[in-house]
Amino acid sequence: MFKTARNMAGLPWIAAMAFFMQALDATILNTALPDIAKSLNHSPLAMQSAVISYTLTVALLIPVSGWLADRFGTRRIFIIAVILFSLGSLLCAFSPNLPFLVVSRIIQG
């Protein structure tokens, strides 16, 4: 099957939304940090591990994602990444404590 311009027309929008979600997720926790810390019975300072875990995971997986995309296909890896990001987001929403939130943020990254 040949890829036509019509089939590829939405690709820039999909990529833009993915980049937007990644940038938003990297910074959004800082905004809600005091409220999340209060609900998890921690000080806002103790929550820095939740912020760092996501950023560090993203930074470590950037080179790996290129290799995976070359090996298994860009589309397949992108779909798996979106599924993992969504699963991580869902787990973050239901985190009962800080260690669970940190693991969820790692999955999200």
Automatic annotation (TrEMBL):
It is a multi-pass membrane protein. One of its GO terms (molecular function) is transmembrane transporter activity. Gene3D superfamilies: Multidrug resistance protein D. This is Major facilitator transporter. Its main location: membrane. Residues 11-109 form the Major facilitator superfamily (MFS) profile domain. Coiled coil: none annotated.
